[in-house]
Write a structure and sequence with these properties.
Oligomer: single chain
Shape: globular
Number of helices: 15
Order of helices and strands: HEEHEHHHEHHHHHHHHEEEEHHEEEE
Number of strands: 12
Helix content: 40-55%
Radius of gyration: 21 Å
Length: 378
C-alpha cells in the first residue's frame, strides 16, 4: 500500500466513483466504491450480501462473512461483552497493561512503539476479554504472525492456519476445564455453537480485536506526534476524547475497505450496472475523506463532529468492538504521553513505512527517542 493513497481516492471519487478493479483473490468482476453517500448506502443495502456465493473454506464462516438472520443470532451471543458498561470493566486492567508496556522501555530512551507498544496492547486486551491467564497466552508476536499469514498470505499459509486453529482449540479446551466469568465460558455454556463454530468465533474475536486497533493506535500516535499543540489540548482535557477519536478514525480509517460484499441480484450503484454475483469493495477510507460530506477532509480537526464517519462500518455489520477500541485508544495515548511527554519520532514522518496487510493501513514501525523515565512504584 502506498504511503499516501488519498490523492488516488480523490481522483476516483471525482472521475470514477464506482470503478471496476482487478482482484486476483476473488472470481468474477469487482467494483470499488469511493463516494461517501454510495458507500454508506451500500453498507446498509441487503442486496449486497457478506457471504460468498460459494465458500471454498472448509471452516465455518466468521461473523463478517454471514448475513441475517444467522449473523444477527451469532452477534447477539457476543454483543453483551462489548457494551459500554461491559467494556468499562476492562478499564483498570487495560491501564495496567499500558503502564506495564511503557515501563518495559521507558528507561532506555528509545523504542519502536509499534513493536513494543501499539502491537502488544490490543493482543493483551483481547486475551483479557477471553479470560485467558498469563501462563496460557502465546506471545503477541506469535499470535499476530499466525493470524496474518493464515488470513492474508496468498496462497494461504495452511501451516499457519493450522497453527492458529490449534492455538484456538487449546484456548477452548482450557475454558471448558476452567470456566469463568468470561466470553468463551458464556459461549460454551450457551450450547448454541458447534465445536467448529465456537473455534471460528474465538478466532474471529482474536483477529478482529487486534487488527484494527493496532493500525489505529500506531496512526494516532503518529498524528499526535506531528501535531503537538492539538495533542496538548487533548491531554489537558480541552477536547472531548470521544469527539477526537471519531475525527482520528475519520481521517485515517484503519480498515481501508469493508469486507467483500456480493451482489445478490442485478443492481445499479451510482451509474454503474452491477451484475448478480459481482464483488463490491466499499472504500471506507475514501468515503471518510469525501469533501461533499466533510469540509476540508484532509485536515485533522479534533473539534470537528466527524459523525457519522464510516471507519467502523455502518448497518448490521457495524464494528462490534468500537467501544473497546476507543477505550484502548484513550488509555494508551494518555499513558504513553503522560509517562514520556517529550517523545520524538526518530525519522521524518514522511519516511514512515505503511503496510500490514491488504486493505489495512498502519505504520509498520515508529522509532522514537525520549528522556529516559525511571520506574515508578505501583
Amino acid at each position: 500500500m502506498t504511503a499516501d493513497p488519498y490523492p488516488g481516492y480523490a481522483w476516483l471519487r471525482e472521475h470514477d466513483p464506482v470503478c471496476p478493479v482487478d482482484d486476483p483473490h476473488v472470481p468474477g468482476r469487482t467494483w470499488l466504491v469511493t463516494r461517501y453517500d454510495d458507500v454508506r448506502a451500500c453498507l446498509a443495502d441487503r442486496r449486497l450480501g457478506s457471504g460468498a456465493p460459494v465458500n471454498p473454506d472448509p471452516h465455518p464462516p466468521g461473523l463478517s462473512q454471514l448475513d441475517d438472520p444467522e449473523h444477527a443470532g451469532l452477534r447477539r451471543l457476543v454483543a453483551a461483552a462489548f457494551t459500554p458498561a461491559a467494556v468499562s470493566r476492562l478499564r483498570d486492567r487495560t491501564a495496567r497493561t499500558c503502564a506495564h508496556a511503557v515501563g518495559s522501555f521507558a528507561g532506555r530512551g528509545r523504542a519502536d512503539l509499534v513493536a513494543e507498544y501499539t502491537r502488544e496492547i490490543p493482543v493483551a486486551v483481547v486475551h483479557d476479554l477471553l479470560g485467558v491467564p498469563e501462563a496460557e497466552r502465546a506471545p503477541a508476536a506469535d499470535v499476530l504472525d499466525m493470524w496474518y499469514r493464515a488470513k492474508f498470505q496468498q496462497p494461504r499459509d495452511e501451516a499457519k492456519l493450522a497453527e492458529m486453529l490449534a492455538y484456538v482449540r487449546r484456548l477452548v479446551a482450557y475454558k471448558r476445564s476452567h470456566p469463568g466469568d468470561d466470553l468463551p465460558t458464556r459461549l460454551i455454556e450457551s450450547g448454541a455453537l458447534t465445536g467448529d463454530e465456537l473455534e471460528v468465533m474465538i478466532m474471529t474475536l482474536i483477529g478482529a480485536g487486534h487488527i484494527t486497533t493496532i493500525q489505529f493506535l500506531g496512526t494516532t500516535v503518529l498524528r499526535l506526534l506531528d501535531h503537538p499543540g492539538r495533542r496538548a489540548a487533548l491531554l489537558a482535557g480541552d477536547i472531548d476524547w470521544s469527539q477526537a477519536i471519531n475525527e482520528l478514525l475519520r481521517l485515517d480509517s484503519p480498515d481501508h475497505v469493508a469486507e467483500y460484499r456480493y451482489a445478490g441480484e442485478d443492481m445499479t450503484i451510482a451509474d454503474a450496472r452491477v451484475a448478480a454475483g459481482d464483488v463490491v469493495l466499499l472504500s471506507l477510507a475514501a468515503a471518510n475523506r469525501d469533501p461533499d460530506r466533510f469540509p476540508d477532509p484532509d485536515t485533522l480537526d479534533l473539534t470537528r463532529d466527524a459523525r457519522p464517519h464510516l471507519a467502523l462500518g455502518h448497518g448490521a455489520h457495524t464494528c462490534l468492538g468500537s467501544h473497546l477500541l476507543k477505550l484502548q485508544t484513550e488509555i494508551a495515548i494518555t499513558t504513553l504521553f503522560g509517562r514520556l511527554p517529550d517523545l520524538t519520532l526518530d525519522i521524518p514522518s514522511g519516511e514512515v513505512d505503511w503496510g500490514y496487510a491488504p486493505t489495512f493501513r498502519g505504520p509498520l514501525a515508529l522509532p522514537v527517542t525520549f528522556t529516559p523515565s525511571v520506574s515508578r512504584a505501583r
